[in-house]
Write a structure and sequence with these properties.
Oligomer: single chain
Radius of gyration: 25 Å
Order of helices and strands: EEHEEH
Number of strands: 4
Shape: elongated
Structural class: alpha+beta
Helix content: 25-40%
Mean pLDDT: 89
Strand order of the largest sheet: 1-2-4-3
Number of helices: 2
Length: about 110
């Protein structure tokens, strides 16, 4: 039985004194990402069918990054982009329709 997604959590702990951060994870996705990067856990436990891993990483690897800011568009720019997107969509639909109508080459 797999662990519910709400319980597949990851916690990161660090302080101002040490240069390392401790990462505890019950998330299989996070564990695969760490393994893919060659970062091995220093401790692994199994609890009720769930693998829990603990890692030590450099503290400078931990950062909170806000999402990129969306450009503020004028009404004219917004309309222009909307028209461009609509034109691309219609061109794609015409191409798709032309391909479905065209006789197959034998």
């Amino acid at each position: 039985m797999s662990t519910p997604r709400i319980e597949q959590e990851t916690s990161i702990t660090y302080n101002e004194e040490e240069d390392t951060a401790l990462v505890w994870s019950a998330s299989p996705v996070f564990q695969r990402r760490m393994a893919k990067r060659g970062i091995l856990p220093y401790e692994t436990n199994k609890r009720e069918g769930t693998t829990v891993c603990s890692y030590r990483v450099p503290r400078k690897w931990v950062k909170v990054q806000p999402p990129p800011k969306q450009p503020e568009l004028t009404e004219e720019e917004r309309l222009k982009r909307s028209e461009q997107a609509r034109a691309r969509l219609f061109a794609f639909r015409r191409l798709k329709q032309a391909r479905s109508i065209a006789p197959e080459a034998k």
